[in-house]
Amino acid sequence: MSPISVRNTPRRLDRTRARAWALQVHYHWDVGNEGRTLSDALEEVMSTRRIALSRVPYLTRLVTELHDHGSEVNDLLSAALDNWRLERLSLLDRGVLRIAAVEIARFEDIPPKVSIQEAVRLAERYGGADSPGFVNGVLDALYKQVMD
User: Fold this and answer.
1) 102-124 pLDDT, tens per residue?
2) b (16+ CB within 10 A) / e for 8-40
3) How is the chain split into domains, by residue range?
4) Tell me, what's the pLDDT at 8?
5) Residue closest to 122 by CA, chosen among 143, 136, 111, 140
6) Cα separation of 111 and 125, whole Å?
7) Could you please report the per-residue DSSP string of the chain?
8) How high is the pLDDT of residue 9?
């Protein structure tokens, strides 16, 4: 393994785990979205869970971008969904898709293929049996749409 890979490994791991925390924040928000914002959900999760300090900046960045650009993310996903509506998706699939979509659309420092790969991993870990393939297909369509 090259020195660059070794040096970047903890940062990548922190981003991977921050995405899982972002999914938990999103789920917390989406389940009980009674006038609460994603920022409120982040605050609640951070006050009740022990999140490594090294993961907080990326987690906060994800949640802030989702909060600030949620409508744009939803529009991109809706256009990429074939014969599906965003609100009919499972909570976990919807959360995974939104997290990856905000990275693809708004994070120039994260390669879109990495966002897709990470989303598929989240879907494998937390979604249903069909979630990984579904997430991959939707995000591939979104990626092609954004790149055109």
Assistant:
1) 999 999 999 999 999 999 999 99
2) eeeeeebbebbbbbbbbbbbbbeeeeeeeebbe
3) 3-147
4) 55
5) 136
6) 21
7) --HHHHHHHHHHHHHHHHHHHHHHHHHHHHHT-SS--HHHHHHHHHHHS---GGGHHHHHHHHHHHHHHHHHHHHHHHHH-SS--GGGS-HHHHHHHHHHHHHHHH-TTS-HHHHHHHHHHHHHHHS-TTHHHHHHHHHHHHHHHHH-
8) 74
Q: Which amino acid is at 104?
A: I
Amino acid at 90: S
Q: Which residue is listed with tokens 């925390």?
A: 21
Cα separation, 59 vs 19, whole angstroms: 7
State the residue for tokens 């897709």.
116
Which pLDDT band holds residue 6 (cuts at 50, 70, 90)?
very low
For residue 81, give the nearest of 94, 70, 91 by alpha carbon: 94
pLDDT tens column, 56-107: 999 999 999 999 999 999 999 999 998 889 999 999 999 999 999 999 999 9
Classify domain 3-147 by CATH architecture: Orthogonal Bundle (1.10)
- In the numeric block, which tokens belong to residue 73? 């993310």
